[in-house]
Design goal:
Radius of gyration: 18 Å
Shape: globular
Oligomer: single chain
Order of helices and strands: EHEHEHEHHEHEEHHHE
Helix content: 25-40%
Number of strands: 8
Distance between the termini: 17 Å
Number of helices: 9
Length: 222
């Protein structure tokens, strides 16, 4: 059976002294990515292995170590800059031309995916108190008048949206919902992203998903 391996920026590299919550949240983010890709690839016969490497430096280094081996895979990292500046990012990543076809970018960050599908916020935070329930998040001024791929620091925008529209209530007191963790809140949002819509809005993700097809085959019908 074919193995599809993707090295992804995000999560944390496991250490023996990691708190249980950190380990659990990293697993939740990996599972969210798995659910995302499985929307398109679920009817194919393959093993999907996702390696979350923490920041882009350790993620890239883990991927570097496997180049040319049976464990070689794709690299998926944040572009961290506007679309069209991929060459500058590849230079920063220190990835040479023979391996650049294995590199794919989340433009500008993973959180851009969430902003491109604002309906997922209500799904992910349905157990929170909704503030301004009559105002659609899609109409919020942080995203309504912007090309989502051009939004700088999308993680900060996600945090702004959560603080404006959701409250955590405990013992009769409320506090703003924060985007406290890419692992925790990020996983909640990511697992609700629609991959088909994502590939329509982000050519980079369409290219990644399309690149996986040559190494997998359709499952035989039961």
């Amino acid at each position: 059976m074919a193995i599809v391996r993707i090295y992804i920026e995000g999560g944390t590299v496991a250490h023996a002294n990691d708190a249980a919550a950190t380990v659990a949240n990293t697993l939740a983010l990996r599972e969210a990515f798995y659910k995302l890709f499985n929307q398109r690839l679920g009817h194919y016969d393959f093993n999907l292995e996702l390696e979350l490497g923490g920041g882009w430096v350790p993620t890239r280094n883990s991927w570097f170590k496997k180049l040319g081996t049976a464990d070689e895979g794709k690299l998926l990292v944040d572009l961290d800059r506007p679309a069209g500046e991929e060459d500058q990012r590849l230079l920063q990543l220190n990835i040479e031309q023979p391996h650049q076809h294995l590199v794919y970018f989340m433009v500008q960050e993973m959180e851009t995916f969430f902003l491109s599908q604002p309906a997922i916020f209500n799904l992910a935070f349905a157990n929170r108190k909704r503030i301004k329930p009559d105002q659609a998040i899609a109409d919020d001024d942080t995203i309504a008048y912007n090309e989502v791929r051009d939004i700088r620091n999308p993680a900060r925008v996600v945090n702004t949206i959560l603080g404006r529209y959701y409250r955590i209530e405990k013992r009769g007191k409320g506090r703003k919902q924060k985007y406290g963790s890419k692992l925790r809140e990020g996983a909640l949002l990511l697992e609700r992203v629609n991959l088909e819509q994502l590939t329509q809005n982000f050519p980079e993700m369409l290219a990644l998903v399309t690149a996986l097809f040559p190494v997998v085959k359709i499952k035989e019908e039961e």
